[in-house]
Amino acid sequence: MSDLDKAAEAVLRANDRGGYTVPTAGLYPYQWNWDSAFAALGFAEFDIDRAWRELETLAEGAWPNGMWPHILFRADDPDYFPGPSVWGAGTSVGAPIASSGVSQPPVAATVARILYERDPEAGLARLRALFPKLLAWRDWFHRDRRGQSGAILVTHPWESGRDNSPDWDGAMARVPIRDLGSFQRRDTGHVDPSMRPTKDDYDRYLSLVAWGREAGWDTHRIAAEGPFAVADPTMTFILLRADRDLRVLAEALGETEAAARLGADCEAGADAAAALWSEDLGAYAARDERSGVFADGVSSAAMLAWYADLRDPVHEQRLLATLHDLLDAAPLAVPSFDPRHPKFDARRYWRGPVWAVVNWMVARGLHEAGHQSEAERLRHDTRRLIEGAGFYEYFDPCDGSGAGGPDFTWTAAIWLAWASPTKKEGWN
Fold this sequence. Notes:
This protein is mostly helical. The chain contains 17 helices and nine strands. The strands form four sheets. It has a three-stranded antiparallel beta sheet. Strands 1-2 form a two-stranded antiparallel ribbon. It starts with a helix and ends in a 9-residue tail after the last helix.
């Protein structure tokens, strides 16, 4: 075990709060949805029982309608805003834990398959108990977040996991800002404000929370009537991957009806993806459900098509060329937004920086599709970033410096599971 391997394990242990992890101390003091999934991936490298427990604690917050929320407020922390009193969600709809009112990409389904296949005999009982909640969650996506085209909608930028991506700019500009009264952001007290969403972004985020709260967190109504609904490549492609992995797990459990239903949705996934193809960009792109307008730049979300196992030969070759353009434009890949675009910002959250977790998903898909040189480029770049800057939340793709929160759980997890040179075969 290398010194960085030991340091990564120490980050996971330090952020462990007794069965669940926080992304990093101070900035994110609760349990975040897809952060926990990646944490489980890291824990699996040295404690498979603890890895399963991470998914199990995440599932404890599932809503009665099947949704797994993006934050579980397991203990009130006055240093975080907006907290449980602002959201007014979770327990208000009959869920067991106070939570946010939106979800996040269902990476947990894919990680559950990885954990199970690591040791099927030991993992069978854990999987059998977890599977119904995973299935109910994906059913919720198909029921309450599917747009007219079949692509999956996000109803708040936070739901996508890519909070302030330029992908949302057009739709967010039409969100009316409420009279929010006085409030104090806590994120900019932990991190340089130049790395965080702007005040205008934040006012609109909170206005969307207020709308959802007034709608009683009726997730079907929010998608149908709310002021923000965007068909999202991230959510669409990660759900397609989840459907594929859950089908394998359903077959392992003898759940034949579920396996058949999941298989049908996998087959229909190509049509949903096609609705997100932008010929102008040569890539998949977010599309405003209300206006039909595509985002005007290429984000790293487009490259998750391989992770979703899409194999459209015409689009794939064009997308591969677009990926090469991004790789040529960024010394360290893959940037969250095209460095050649005027909206690119190398250090402001999802408007340009590199995220290790996105690199892992994109590279995994490329590897499975046979694009080995591109997959290894992403792995090598991720290794260089962490070796050079440490376990930061994200990284500047131009100079490799770390940004956002330090000692970040999911970056440490990706190091252990994939980026470390001691991980000889990093594809699980």
